Amino acid sequence: MSKIHTLRNLIKELRHGLPDHLKIQHSPAFTYIMENYRRNAVTDQQYCREQEEMDSLAKTMVTYLESSRRYKEIHDEYHAKGERTVQDTANIVGFKLPHDPR
């Protein structure tokens, strides 16, 4: 994954965590990340070890934010509804209940 792709994924995951009325540019996390990316920009005449460390940290943050978001989605889908009927439970796990023709 390229560094720009990692940055885009990181910003996308940060956007998911913000309320709809806030812009990502006003987020302290966004400001911090962009400052670090700009500060550790490499020219063709220097090698920056910090940039490699920053890229690794950014990939770790993307993985953490994405996993946290997915966990919340799954938790809300399966655990936040209270009591369910037998039919609802069967639908969740992909079973069909036998039809009782009375």
UniProtKB/TrEMBL annotation:
Against Pfam families, the record matches this protein to:
Complex1_LYR_2 (PF13233)
Q: Which InterPro entries match?
A: FMC1_homologue
Signal peptide span: none
Quick one: a GO cellular component term? mitochondrion
Q: Which family does it belong to?
A: Belongs to the FMC1 family.
Q: This chain belongs to which protein, by name?
A: Protein FMC1 homolog
Native species of this protein?
A: Halocaridina rubra (Hawaiian red shrimp)
